[in-house]
């Protein structure tokens, strides 16, 4: 279970049943392909262009010139069975009486199945998935957090962090289709983005602190320190530097520079940045 809850707008299911058999013609001859994101028997009328779409995501994919549709601005829906237009605040066709979906949120203008256990969070202001009983809203983070980690999740240091964009893909995390996660430093990132990033860099992309455990990086640190001892810099390339450690925040002076890295004498981390190079004649520590 994800530590934080994702928006149902992002719960697009590639295996979702389509609401119709194929492309259908509206009365005004505008083609409306069936929705591939949600199991429903209705379409929405976009408030921006007046056209019918399977859902808000269908609109955004098919009409990029309109921009992102305002989910709360939808006023009309159209029955996929009898094609009758009607107010959007209903889950039953006023003409043929078909039920549009198992779940309906009049606030978000959302119709979908109960498979992903959708629920509306009044504080978030949008629908999410995963079951209401499994999540608790954190006012500081502005996000629904899993009850299993609610008491231990990091939130005080960076308020409303989930209203920021993911530092890797730059997508809004608050209403994202991808679940976000806390890093040990307190910053947030998409789970999948972090997995991809960690294959190349085990640091937070925002503050550059190491986010991998000390135990998991110990062997690599020892190996790098050994390599530095075995491969000292030749005199013509030797430098004395001042560094800042991204992990402990300590500043250290008069350290010997090496192309493999400069180790922090306080925490043994190699996650350091050179802040200055000593003038000739100053000895390294």
UniProtKB/TrEMBL annotation:
<protein>
    <submittedName>
        <fullName>Uncharacterized protein</fullName>
    </submittedName>
</protein>
<feature type="domain" description="CTCHY-type">
    <location>
        <begin position="100"/>
        <end position="163"/>
    </location>
</feature>
<keyword id="KW-0862">Zinc</keyword>
<dbReference type="GO" id="GO:0008270">
    <property type="term" value="F:zinc ion binding"/>
</dbReference>
<dbReference type="Pfam" id="PF13639">
    <property type="entry name" value="zf-RING_2"/>
</dbReference>
<dbReference type="InterPro" id="IPR017921">
    <property type="entry name" value="Znf_CTCHY"/>
</dbReference>
<keyword id="KW-0479">Metal-binding</keyword>
<feature type="domain" description="RING-type">
    <location>
        <begin position="166"/>
        <end position="208"/>
    </location>
</feature>
<dbReference type="InterPro" id="IPR013083">
    <property type="entry name" value="Znf_RING/FYVE/PHD"/>
</dbReference>
<dbReference type="InterPro" id="IPR039512">
    <property type="entry name" value="RCHY1_zinc-ribbon"/>
</dbReference>
<dbReference type="InterPro" id="IPR037275">
    <property type="entry name" value="Znf_CTCHY_sf"/>
</dbReference>
<dbReference type="Pfam" id="PF14599">
    <property type="entry name" value="zinc_ribbon_6"/>
</dbReference>
<dbReference type="InterPro" id="IPR037274">
    <property type="entry name" value="Znf_CHY_sf"/>
</dbReference>
<feature type="region of interest" description="Disordered">
    <location>
        <begin position="1"/>
        <end position="24"/>
    </location>
</feature>
<dbReference type="InterPro" id="IPR001841">
    <property type="entry name" value="Znf_RING"/>
</dbReference>
<feature type="domain" description="CHY-type">
    <location>
        <begin position="28"/>
        <end position="98"/>
    </location>
</feature>
<dbReference type="InterPro" id="IPR008913">
    <property type="entry name" value="Znf_CHY"/>
</dbReference>
<dbReference type="Pfam" id="PF05495">
    <property type="entry name" value="zf-CHY"/>
</dbReference>
<keyword id="KW-0863">Zinc-finger</keyword>
